[in-house]
Write a structure and sequence with these properties.
single chain; 386 residues; alpha/beta; Rossmann fold; 2 domains; six-stranded mixed β-sheet; 17 helices; 16 strands; EC 4.2.1.20; TrpB-like_PALP_sf; aromatic amino acid biosynthesis
Length: 386
Amino acid sequence: MKLKHYFGEFGGQFVPETLIPALDELEEGYIAFKKDKNTQQQLNELFKTYVGRPTPLYFAKNFSDYVGAKVYLKREDLAHTGAHKINNTLAQGLLAKFMGKKRIIAETGAGQHGVATATVCALLNLECVVYMGKTDVERQSTNVDKMKILGAEVISVEKSGGTLKSAINEALRDWVANVQTTYYLLGSVVGPHPFPTIVGDFQSVIGKEAKRQIKKCEGKLCDAVVACVGGGSNAYGIFSAFLKDDVELYGIEAGGRSINLGDHSATLSLGTKGILHGSLSYLLQRQANVMPVHSISAGLDYPGVGPMHSFLKDTKRVIYDYVFDDQALEGFFALSKLEGIIPALESSHALAYVLAQKEKFKNKTIIINLSGRGDKDLDIIRMVQE
């Protein structure tokens, strides 16, 4: 059995010929991994005892009163390592062991995927190398320290702006050179097939839990689900369980400083179709050149997006919109002061959208995916306040 390579017209494998056997090996390994009862049992047990799943669905009463809606938070910030990233890294780490790989490489933007990868490599006794853009190394220094403590080698990438795109470029180069011995643990629903399918599947635990939990709390489904979108793993993770239901879905991108190209990362809202990192999707480009991007949150600072999101945009199943940096900061401080929960700047974009669209969500029941916690962003907050 082979997996579908495309979501509508989006996705595919636009890669050098040397990578095709490795992608075929990955697809075959993933299919066998999903059928293996022992590894699935091990994954489910580690989800419970190591990651802390299921994460709570928390009714945020103070925030709800403030926005005039009934707001629940899916608390992925309470998962081990402080973000949803551990769901995917734990599952892919076990998949790598299942396939006999002993060396893991990964890319990271905000550092959350890097920390989660280093954590799993420590747990499973795997060599770990993390590529991180120079700009992100500087603004996420705490996460860099965590990765090193966990035993990972962190390689700072200075080329092409020194952000997440640069890190993915270098990780792919490493994989091409060491494909026989190395497993590339991609952190989002991007890249060539089968990565988007694999990451989306491993993050779908978020939506499955949230759907059960909201039914238990409310006796019915919610009216809407809201999540931030960079590459799109947390958003697809929660959206996937609700795609066939009568539930509104909102993906919120980073509007950055302005809507001028180079000032934002609103790929779905303001981009055009093109190829980046091995798949066809929407991306931010000018005359076929991928453009620099900006966001106050390192995890959303990416010029592309997962191909399933491009499909969901074109089929109008999900509404994609954006908020600016200053609005994200309003969301950050609002949740901190109203609920005593410091959110990641990435998640703050989803909070900010609900704040900005109070009339749209008035008296509705909504779930916001709180994809990560904000400890990592305190240096950025301090700089902004100065």
